Amino acid sequence: MKRGFIELMFLTTILAAGIPSQVSAAYNFGDYRSETLTTKAWESLKEGNLDAVLAYTNKCIELYAGQAKKMQSSLEGYPKGANDLIFSYWALNDVATSLFIQGEAYRKADKADQAKEAYRKVVNEFTYGQAWDPQGWFWKPAEAAKEKLAMLESGSKLDFGDYTSSFLTTQAWKALAENNVEAVLAYANKVLELYESKAKEMQGSLTEYPWESKEKIFTYWALNDVGTSLYIKGEALKKDGKNKESQEAYQKLVDEYFYAQCWDPKGWFWKPAEAAQQSLDEFGEI
User: Fold this and answer.
1) Residue 60 neighbours by CB distance under 10 Å
2) N or C: which end of the chain has fewer CB within 10 A?
3) Are residues 146 and 170 in the same domain?
């Protein structure tokens, strides 16, 4: 995440003031930058370490919530434009993200009340924070938190995790294996909602399947995951006897995301659009 001199000066001021002088020996807060603390919180969330998540997120909130609130009060909507402009709201972005991570950690630990409290704080106090995804886009913690709150209130067991296309697509595969059509549709449609625009951009840049290397193919992540999600959607609907809807999903994949590829853990790529076309041909033979 790009940072400017303003953050450095702000950090120097709070360190000089001695705010973080009582450092827990159990956790390494590094340079105390909001980016560092948020990154460590994400890592701890992936490890399922609730105590560590709380240590890093609470430290970020302790140090930067005041600055984040000033940034929030200066806005009437989400900052738009160049990445550098959005990054300039670093405190707001990282405090909002830290609270979202807290909510996720509590939710995964079956502490629903605490999760709701964290999610609500994002929504109500740090609404316009944005989180940077390393794959090249910003997402909105407050909007994700609203969705998480609705799911908790309804008792839904869906887990959108960090909202990355890879996580959502993996969840769709798991739901397909469990014959849970409702969950497949939820995960696949979420991939489409978030990543379809980027996938179309990638598809439009190609005239053939990328082939140069495994790494090169993975750079078309949005196209690959949107195409794969449509294939999973088609498979789930076919298993559920909804042939018309299944064909629509397959046809959309063939028509709009033909150059998508899916990585098989056994060590190779396969082509969802070609598999979808085969299924469409089989429908024609029925």
Assistant:
1) 29
2) C
3) no
Contact 208, 177 (CB under 8 A): no
pLDDT, tens digit (0-9, with 9 covering 90-100), for 130-144: 999 888 889 999 999
In the chain, the amino acid numbered 231 is Y
Q: Which residue has the tokens 């294996």?
A: 177
**Which tokens belong to 271?**
């082509």
Whether residue 89 lies inside any domain: the answer is yes
Angle made by CA atoms 158, 160, 164, in degrees to the nearest 5: 160
Closest CA to 257 of 185, 170, 198: 198
Q: Rounded to two decimals, what is the model's pTM?
A: 0.76
Q: Quote the CA–CA distance of 212 and 197 in Å, as a whole number.
A: 24
Could you tell me the residue range of the domain that residue 62 belongs to? 5-154
Which amino acid is present at 109?
A: A
Note whether 190 and 212 are same-domain residues: yes
| Per-residue pLDDT, 157 | 86
Claim to verify: residue 141 and residue 61 sit in the same structural domain: yes
Pairing of strands 268-270, 262-264: antiparallel
Cα distances from 79 to residues 133, 139, 140, in angstroms, run: 16, 12, 11
